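Incident log, support desk, overnight shift.

02:14 A customer reports that sequence design results differ from what the structure should imply. Their input is reproduced verbatim below. On-call engineer (initials T.W.) acknowledged and began investigating.
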């Protein structure tokens, strides 16, 4: 599973930590990638950061999600695979 975290030019530590914690709690093996280059963020169709994509599906955009919400999303997407 690939989890991409899209960030703006500054900050982002909080959302990355939330993602890491959610992956840990879910017990799912996932590769976490961060994308902060504006061109790459735009190519991905992200209009508001921070944003999180799991397996190319935008899960959240424009806010830092709750850890439990991400655990649920990770678990649900893993079941679909």
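02:41 Re-run completed on a clean worker. Output:
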């Amino acid at each position: 599973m690939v989890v991409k975290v899209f960030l703006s030019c500054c900050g982002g530590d909080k959302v990355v930590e939330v993602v890491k914690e959610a992956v840990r709690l879910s017990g799912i093996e996932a590769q976490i990638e961060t994308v902060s280059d504006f061109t790459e963020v735009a190519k991905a169709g992200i209009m508001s950061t921070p944003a999180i994509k799991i397996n190319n599906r935008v899960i959240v955009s424009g806010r830092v999600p709750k850890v439990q919400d991400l655990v649920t999303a990770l678990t649900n997407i893993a079941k679909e695979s």
